[in-house]
Amino acid sequence: MTDLTRLAGKSFLIVGRAGMDLYPDPPGSRTEEARAMTVCLGGSSANIGVALVKQGCKAALVTRVADDAIGRYCLNELDRYGIDRSHVTPTGGEARNSLAIVETRVEDHQSVIYRNGAADFEMTVADVEGVDYAPWSALITTGTVLAAEPSRTAAFRAFDLARAAGLPLIFDIDYRPYSWPSPQVAADVYSRAGAMCDVIVGNDVEFGFMAGDYDKGLDKARDLVAKGARIAVYKMGEKGAITITHDGEFQTGIYRTEALKPTGAGDSFMGGFIAALADGRAMREAVLRGSASAAMVVARVGCAPAMPTTGELDAFLADRPDPD
Fold first, then answer.
1. 99 falls in which pLDDT band (50, 70, 90)?
2. What is the pTM assigned to this prediction?
3. Alpha carbon distance 117, 137 (integer Å)
4. Which domains are seen in the chain, by residue range?
């Protein structure tokens, strides 16, 4: 069983995508009525990296980006946020970076995601074998990295190499149906990944999907812990989360804010949760800091720029009691 005290090193290797997000401006605008766009770094793995760095950790990304202006934008943004991109490889040809157009509105929200020929899916086994895993505190990945080849095989190779180096494996299920050839393939691959990981975070729909029955998602989360995972966080939207460990399980609520958009919460939760564990905080406090981070991001424009710093998170929590 992997020793999670290694997280105290506060340096995280993240496998997965970086992309560009466009937000119709001003906030509240519908995409089809937009006259301007706000541009920022996107992609679930890059967002998690930003969240960790803003809360006092180090982060490096392993992925591929397009060898074009959008790819160079992503590289520049990774530099600006202080994310190590030594293992981010530009790739030519027809591969393109992920692009998301996301409205800053909750009612009738629209998100349009462009993922055809995604550059990050071009990540190879050679890319992950070129990494020295020993200095890192943990390997983090999201489910999107597993949706296509050669990225899928490369990600599982990274799991093996990280495990051999003694790193905990942290998995955000992050199921995006549009990236997968079929639900059955996705369920099989996610189950394989979940069985290898020490910390697994997902929502009730994602765990239910892994279980093959949306009514059995919580059972799936419990089963993963029973079979070796150290922590499973089963998120339930407005109903909060159930956290399962070998010491038992507990439920926590959410922090309510005036949401501007429904996106970014999962990446922010992961960053806040893992940063808190790395700080040596108790499990319940870590989950609550993840929940507070999520609440802050949905009340702000963007995802990467909306991730709270440690000081901002502390100030937010100082004004609020723990949720029921």
1. very high
2. 0.97
3. 32
4. 46-65+121-318 (3.40.1190.20)
